[in-house]
Amino acid sequence: MHGRDLPWRTTRDPYHVLVSELMLQQTQVSRVVPKYAAFLVTFPTLHDVARARPSRVADAWSGLGYYARARNLHALATVVTDRGRDATSVLPSDAGALRALPGVGAYTAGAVSSFAYERRAELVDTNVARVLNRVFAPELDRKSGRGQKRLWSIARALLPRTGAATWTHNQALMELGALVCTARVARCGECPVRGVCATYAALRTAKGVRRVVR
Ligand code: SF4
């Protein structure tokens, strides 16, 4: 399986990774790609965001919808840069510290920690939750609080030993959910993890069943 060639995959700049992750929440990849590039031209650093009026940040966000994300980004920038006074400050690398910032949930914290800093941080978004659910715990209701907790603990247990390997591992899990084990169809025939997948094993014993949609 080959990953998609997306612009935020070639950077380790924490601010760039954060912007991409915020944009990708609730917005399709194809719409995010041009907006991501344009936003970084207008606001090259977190410090630039902090020093701008919130309305300017919202303007640069136009077309993406869900403007709370732009407001949160501005609030976060003002916190991290001491209201724009500190141009040298950067986002923290620890997922727990990232979590404490405005608008940063568990997934975004894990994504910035792993994708920008190559830390051993787990992350579970909708795609990853579906894959882990189908591979390891098909009986689990992934939308329940208990199910979510279990999926996060599975994600933690699966992390490779190094941060660099974790970067690749997390990217691969997300690609698997986006391209192969999708919400609409499970392409088990081309899936690299079918040898360990509980859902695939169950399907092979249930003759005639080819698709998994849950
Ligand atoms: S084998 Fe099928 S159900 Fe299992 S992870 Fe792969 S695509 Fe999804």
CATH topology of the largest domain: Endonuclease III, domain 1
Beta-strand content bin: under 5%
How many discrete structural domains? 2
Q: Could you tell me which ligands this complex binds, including any ions or cofactors?
A: iron/sulfur cluster
CATH H-level superfamily title of the largest domain: Hypothetical protein, domain 2
**How far apart are the first and last residues' alpha carbons, in Å?**
23 Å
- What structural class is derived from the secondary structure elements? mainly alpha
Assembly type: single chain
Number of discrete helical segments: 11
Question: In the CATH hierarchy, what is the architecture of the largest domain at level 2?
Answer: Orthogonal Bundle
Rg calculated over all Cα atoms:
19 Å
Q: What is the succession of H and E elements? A: HHHHHHHHHHH
Low-confidence stretches: none
CATH structural class of the largest domain: Mainly Alpha
Q: How does this model look, in words?
A:
The chain is mainly α and 214 residues long. The protein folds into two domains: 1-121, Endonuclease III, domain 1; 122-214, Endonuclease Iii, domain 2, CATH 1.10.1670. It is built from eleven helices and no strands. The protein has helices spanning 14-24, 29-42, 46-51, 54-60, 68-80, 95-99, 106-115, 126-136, 145-158, 163-180, 198-205. Bound molecules: iron/sulfur cluster.
